[in-house]
Specification:
The protein is of the alpha+beta class. The chain has 13 helices and 17 strands. 31% of the residues lie in helices and 27% in strands. Strands 2-1-6-7-8-9-10 form a seven-stranded antiparallel beta sheet. A five-stranded mixed beta sheet has the order 14-15-5-16-17, with helices on one face. A hairpin with a 2-residue loop joins strand 3 and strand 4.
Length: 429
């Protein structure tokens, strides 16, 4: 689980911004929201992010995704860009490195990862953990500008043999992480294996408003009866009048247009050629059965509402959150969904998950009125006069327990709202 994430000089974040999942002393709904790490630390499973359009909410999700992708995926060569985008509204930031910090727990053990990099080079990288109350080094990586060379120092706790250390050093290029090199190396299992696997298994790809959640969910229930029944149960409880899900396989003849599309797909050439030679392709068709007092009837997907299709996809997210212990980041959670459905989704997640985390942005201020809201889960993003995004917590305002966060936000006491001018329009004729 993530304890704290920090980002500096990346996209719209100029100064260091901190997103923390450490629970405060607030006592409400602890069993639903909190995971006990030790007697002194509880980690929150949920984080709401509010802010005006273009305030930087999505950039926070992009920053998390960038860090995870950078850690796992090695570049093809030394000249390939790292993909790091500095803050551009300050010329002094363009030549400075971006900085990322992530503290997280694997089971009950705390790890800390730091990295400093620009568009071309990784200048510093550090991975440490706490086998006891004191920090211990796993590895530290620096950059020798004169030799244009990466230097890696491994701590004793890495428990890597000398030949394995040299293998990783040889694979680590100046624009990639040490962990990505470890993923390429044929070395013995060590503590780094557990960390590398945590980044692979723990972080889901971010979900944006235009993400094809329906297609993803459809692929997940293929040949998986338990998962299909879970999604059906989710839809039933969401009052869509859906009583059954039918999946059939159809054979489609390949014409010139389909062949052109197949050739443009990112799939192996052998598979492309086999499909074209067979002159047909198999496609799955999914239908939902709707039940009314008069009849039961299957509808084609084209007849379903955007909200129905979106919530079907969200059901697959929910299943992963409950069963896999994953970390999901969702941009505009309420996209195409009624407030009550969003609240229902959040409640199911909180009451049925164990160690997963959900981070999401939203414009739906009604969620601030949830009767099961914990205030330490709510964050705001606002741009300052320099165009830089600033992140702050609802807890910082120390609102009286009887004062509604919904009302406080609506009247502007919490910031992070659009600054709108009057509604008059000039006559340009």
């Amino acid at each position: 689980m993530i304890l704290e994430f920090r980002v500096e000089n990346f996209l719209s974040f100029r100064e260091e911004q901190i997103l923390s999942f450490e629970a405060t002393a607030e006592k409400g709904f602890e069993s639903e929201y909190c995971v006990d790490i030790n007697k002194n630390l509880k980690i929150l499973k949920l984080g709401f992010i509010y802010g005006a359009n273009a305030s930087g909410k999505t950039n926070l999700i992009k920053a998390l995704h960038f860090l995870n992708a950078f850690i796992l995926h090695q570049k093809n060569g030394k000249n390939e860009p790292t993909g790091c985008d500095p803050f551009i509204f300050d010329d002094s930031c363009i030549d400075k490195p971006s900085r990322f910090y992530l503290s997280f727990f694997i089971n009950k053990t705390k790890f800390i990862y730091n990295v400093e990099l620009d568009e071309k080079i990784v200048y510093y990288e550090n991975l440490s953990f706490f086998p006891s109350s004191k920090s211990a080094l796993i590895y530290e990586r620096t950059y020798d500008r004169n030799k244009d060379k990466t230097i890696i120092k491994f701590g004793n706790y890495s428990k890597l043999k000398l030949k394995d250390r040299r293998t990783i050093e040889g694979l680590t290029i100046s624009n990639s992480s040490v962990l990505s090199s470890f993923g390429k190396a044929n070395v013995e299992k060590s503590i780094i294996t557990d960390i590398y696997n945590w980044f692979i298994d723990g972080f889901a790809i971010p979900i944006y408003p235009n993400s094809d959640l329906f297609g993803w969910a459809q692929s997940k229930i293929k040949n998986n009866k338990n998962r299909l029944e879970f999604l059906l149960d989710v839809l039933k409880k969401a009052d869509f009048n859906i009583s059954s899900i039918d999946i059939t396989t159809k054979k489609i003849d390949i014409d010139s247009t389909i062949e052109k599309n197949i050739n443009s797909m990112n799939i192996p050439d052998e598979l492309k050629q086999k499909i074209i030679n067979d002159k047909m392709v198999e496609a799955e068709e999914i239908r939902f059965q709707h039940s009314t007092k008069m009849m039961k009837k299957y509808l084609p997907i084209s007849a379903e509402s955007k909200g129905t299709l979106r919530f079907f996809g969200m059901g697959a997210v929910l299943e992963s959150l409950i069963k896999d212990g994953s970390i999901y980041a969702i941009d505009e959670l309420e996209n195409s969904l009624h407030y009550e459905l969003v609240a229902h989704f959040i409640k199911i997640f909180l009451e049925n998950s164990n160690s997963s985390q959900l981070i999401f942005t939203t414009h739906d201020i009604n969620l601030l009125n949830l009767d099961f809201l914990r205030r330490d889960t709510v964050w705001f993003v606002e741009k300052n006069e320099y165009g830089a995004s600033e992140l702050y917590s609802l807890v910082e305002f120390k609102l009286h327990k009887n004062l509604s966060p919904f009302n406080a936000y609506r009247v502007g006491k919490l910031g992070a709202k659009p600054n709108l001018s009057d509604s008059s329009i000039n006559n340009y004729e």
